[in-house]
Every structure is written in structure tokens, then in C-alpha cells.
């Protein structure tokens, strides 16, 4: 399936890591947050923690788990390996490119088709069972969301710890709306 079930959800990218700060690709390395990344996660708690989420789905990678624990210390977190960042193979730890080669075959990396397939499988499972879940994951996961809702994965990079409301078109026609989430 290359579509999302038409149900709203909120997406949150993890806090800043050293690789984010340095402008390097870090898909599969399980890296920690910087002190600033931890600060970002605690700061967003003031808004995210005010809401009773139907479900909090979190990538199994450390940076996403730590962000979720700091942002939602009183919430039950549910870990999903399918929300892990893409493995970029030989491009790991190299400078972020503009544009990124999302659809290129990557030596020792994960194909776009495999990555998108596993991410969509988890997202659609969540959307089938929960009303407006919160998803804490990675910029690559957001690129998959953009690809299936906007028709391409390109555009401005999503900020660290910047919640995005992902809403299907009201009438079933048109594009999804991806907007900054405000409580």
C-alpha cells in the first residue's frame, strides 16, 4: 500500500543530535541527543504533555525514545521498529545533500521502496486503531509522509522537536495538510 489511511495524527521528530548539528546523514547509527536536543524535548513537554494521546508510537532508536521520554514523562510509550530511520549505507556520516538521493540505489543501504513500505505499514496500523496518535520518529519517516501525502519527499527539512499535524483532506479530495501543531 502506498497511501495513508485518511485519519489525522501528529508527527514529532526527535531532538537534536550531533549529526543534525553538523549537517551529516545519520540514518542507522543509534546516536544520542545533544544537551540542546534534550532541552528541546523537555520544552515541547509543555504543549504535548497537556494532551491525552490515544497512543504514543515511538521509533526504537535511542534518539526518538529519549525525546519521547523527556517530552511525555507520564505517557505510556509504544516502540515500533518499523519507524526506525532509513539506513543510508555508504552515505552514512557524510554531508546532507541538496537534494537528497531518496530514490537512488544505495550500496549497503535500504531502498526507498523497502523503507517507505515498512513505515507505511506501521502508520496505517496505527491509524486503523487509534484516533489521532502521536508518532515520534525521524526526518526520513516524515519524508515518507510527505511523499505519500504531497507527491514527493523534497522540501524544507522538518525541525527537531517541531510537532506537525497531519490531516487528510476533509472531503476526501485534494492533498493532506501538514501544519505546525498547536494545542
TrEMBL record:
SMART domains: PGAM. SUPFAM superfamilies: Phosphoglycerate mutase-like (SSF53254). InterPro entries: His_Pase_superF_clade-1 (IPR013078), His_PPase_superfam (IPR029033), PGM_Phosphatase (IPR050275). GO terms for molecular function: phosphatase activity. One of its GO terms (cellular component) is cytosol. Pfam families: His_Phos_1. It comes from the Bacteria. This is Probable phosphoglycerate mutase. It comes from Kushneria avicenniae.
Amino acid at each position: 500500500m502506498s497511501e495513508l489511511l485518511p485519519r489525522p495524527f501528529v508527527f514529532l521528530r526527535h531532538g537534536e543530535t550531533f549529526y543534525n548539528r553538523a549537517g551529516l546523514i545519520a540514518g542507522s547509527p543509534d546516536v544520542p541527543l545533544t544537551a540542546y536536543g534534550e532541552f528541546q524535548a523537555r520544552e515541547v513537554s509543555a504543549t504535548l504533555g497537556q494532551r491525552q494521546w490515544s497512543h504514543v508510537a515511538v521509533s526504537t532508536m535511542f534518539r526518538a525514545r529519549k525525546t519521547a521520554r523527556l517530552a511525555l514523562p507520564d505517557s505510556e510509550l509504544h516502540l515500533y521498529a518499523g519507524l526506525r530511520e532509513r539506513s543510508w549505507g555508504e552515505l552514512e556520516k557524510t554531508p546532507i545533500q541538496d537534494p537528497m538521493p531518496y530514490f537512488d540505489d544505495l550500496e549497503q543501504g535500504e531502498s526507498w521502496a523497502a523503507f517507505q513500505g515498512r513505515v507505511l505499514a506501521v502508520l496505517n496500523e496505527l491509524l486503523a486503531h487509534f484516533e489521532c496518535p502521536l508518532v515520534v520518529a525521524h526526518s526520513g519517516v516524515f519524508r515518507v509522509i510527505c511523499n505519500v501525502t504531497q507527491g514527493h519527499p523534497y522540501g524544507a527539512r522538518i525541525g527537531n522537536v517541531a510537532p506537525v499535524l497531519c490531516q487528510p483532506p476533509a472531503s476526501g479530495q485534494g492533498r493532506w495538510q501538514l501544519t505546525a501543531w498547536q494545542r
